[in-house]
Amino acid sequence: MKQFLSVNDVLDISKLVESAKAYKKNPFKDPELGRNKTLGMLFLNPSMRTRLSTQVAAKRLGMEPVIFNIDKEGWQLEFEDGVIMDGNKSEHVKEAAAVMGMYFDIMAIRTFPGLKDREEDYQEKYISQFVKHAGVPIVSMESATLHPLQSLTDILTMSENFDFSSGRKPKVVMTWAPHKKALPQSVPNSFAQWTNAWGKANFVITHPEGGGYELDEKFTAGATIEYDQEKALEDADFIYVKSWSSYRDYGKINCTDPSWMMTADKLENTHQAKVMHCLPVRRNLVIGDNILDGNSSLVVEEAGNRVWAAQAVLAEILKNI
Ligand code: SN0
Fold first, then answer.
1. Which atom in ligand 1 lies closest to the alpha carbon of residue 278?
2. 39 and 314 Cβ atoms separated by less than 8 Å
3. Strands (E) located in the chain
4. 46 CB under 6 A from ligand 1?
5. Cis, bond preceding 27 (omega within 30 deg of 0)
6. 148 neighbors 83 (Cβ within 8 angstroms)
7. What is the pLDDT of residues 75-126, one digit of tens each?
8. First vs last Cα of the chain: how many Å apart?
């Protein structure tokens, strides 16, 4: 693997999941793979799980992770081409990325969307410039439109929590939930893209009708869209809860209906469904206490799996440099 920006960089999802499981069984089996290699971890936005799990994963492969919170500690970067830099931006990404590429063997980057200009966000203006100018493999730690390390973790978590030998496909339902902030579509886009590419589930997406919450079909094609949440949740094996802002009415919050919150009573007509969320989750706004404090929640186990997903991805890239 030469980079990790989306599922399209993965040759064989099942193999990558098996590799993550092998690291889970034996975290220290490859202490030499990343020896004398440095991972630059660049944050333009906040992070807890991604930062910590990727750092731990890198160390277990013998790598040295170096963290740089560019948003707080660096020069403000310019990303536009051909501008006169007489404003508050001190350095162009062309130099910044090229320089960092001289220091690091792999670079991992977190950069959220602006949620104002859909075209700009969906062109991945920020991460793509690092790809272009850094000259080293780039790993997405959530970009403007995708969050592949999270999605690999989610596939791993589902594969551990379903008995595929039953011959039945699990029903996976991704449901929208209300939120007070306009959130990126990155996590739901990416979950849809990976679940479709994985191909081992019956996949349904449910969200309010009329607010433009339909996600980019480039990621969702193959999934069933059902606007009635109750109907969508029938016979579910996994319920993936996520809030996102409108895609069609870009970046807007067009629905705040609390009845879309995930609560324990909604599990009644499911196959004892397990509830997933990437975290951080706002209790009693997105998911109720009665789920998060009960047996149906996988959220902590899921977050724990982030280490093994990151380790599998870094290992694949290290084998190629
Ligand atoms: C981010 C998102 O993409 O939805 C990161 C998830 C991994 N989530 C948030 O920004 C939540 C912030 C909040 O205040 O609840």
1. 7
2. yes
3. 38-43, 64-68, 77-78, 91-92, 106-110, 138-140, 171-176, 202-206, 224-225, 238-242, 274-276
4. no
5. no
6. no
7. 999 999 999 999 999 999 999 999 999 999 999 999 999 999 999 999 999 9
8. 9
**Which atom in ligand 1 lies closest to the alpha carbon of residue 244?**
4
Q: What amino acid occupies position 210? A: G
Q: How many other CB atoms are found less than 10 A from the CB of residue 37? A: 18
Chain centre distance of CA 69: 19
Q: How far apart are CA 39 and CA 106, in angstroms?
A: 5
Among 183, 190, 243, 286, the mutation site with the greatest number of ligand 1 atoms within 8 A of its Cβ is 183
CB 205 within 8 Å of CB 236: no
CA atoms within 13 A on the CB side of 40: 24
Residue 312: what residue type? A
SS3 content of the chain, % helix, strand, coil (to 5): 40, 15, 45
Give the largest Cα separation in the chain, rounded.
Answer: 64
pLDDT in tens, 278-320: 999 999 999 999 999 999 999 999 999 999 999 999 999 999 9
